[in-house]
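Reopening this ticket.

The earlier resolution said the output was attached, but the attachment link was broken on my side. Pasting everything inline this time so it's all in one place.
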Amino acid sequence: MNSSTEASQSGLDTEEGCSRSETWRCGVRSSSSSSMVAVIIAAAAAVVVVVVVVVVVVVVVVVVIVVVAVVVEAVRSGSSY
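Inline output:
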């Protein structure tokens, strides 16, 4: 049995030797804080982009529905649009 398998079976992280309950702390300690901040900023930016795209799509759909309704009503009433 190799050492990494033994370490993982004993409940220790193979990189830091931390218990599994503290893996998140070991991950924060082992990685640089700037990369963690970059990951958080990238995730937040992705969420913002998705929200903005959804809002734009909803607004475009609503505007198209309103314009179609106005045109249909104008044509139905016989007035020139």
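Reporter confirms the inline version is readable. Residues 4-8, 11-15 have pLDDT under 50 and may be disordered. Residues 3-56 form one domain.
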